[in-house]
Amino acid sequence: MEANKIVFIGSGNLATNLAKAFFDRQIKISQIYSRTEESARLLAEAVGADYTTSLAQVITDADIYIVALKDDVVAQLMPQIIAGKEGALMVHTSGSLPLSIWPDSVKRKGVFYPLQTFSKQRKVEFDSIPVFIECNNPDDNSLLKELAACITNQVCELSSEKRRQLHLAAVFACNFTNHMYALAEKILKQYNIPFDYILPLIEETEKKVHYLSPHQAQTGPAVRYDEKVINKHLELLSGEPEMQEIYQLLSKSIHRL
To answer: CA-to-CA distance for 111 and 156, rounded, in angstroms?
Structure first.
């Protein structure tokens, strides 16, 4: 794509993976901003960019600013983020923030939302990660599509409302599921059983939904509401009232569905 001067506002999990994906495809990153010097420096070094820990020192002549911050921080820092950058394309990466989070003074505004779970410690392959685009004008919409197409084969347009609904589903599918892994790990540690023992089970559960609907793939005592098994599990959780409640709620939900 045509060379554009890109700045990342943020150096967290998403920013780190996205900036590195751009860098791997020879898309130049001019500058990284983070309030933490180590975080800004490490990412800047990884992608051959300058860095700053001051929003006042962020360059104002970039073409695209990619804001990858926590939702509440975007709103809090908005005046500083947009100051002096008239004419640039301002883009956020949130699944839950609408396009309208950008104020009227921002004439070129967009969303660049990769739907994936990101961690700094693990590099993901972007080729099959869907990136959802939203923009307030056709030219910038084409620009963001072209930018996304440099890193993935799945580029889709999606409205703020549909993206918010997608993000809700993603929280159930990813964040809540991972929390179940964490609770399982806690149980296993309590009984000195290695977490590795359940990795094949986790892998097969994930594979099944590529071929069956999640509804069809559901197994376990809650499907048939086997009260003997359920009560034995609840007894094992007698010292963990919160986990007992989670177990009961999920079991009832599975059975009803």
So the answer is: 11
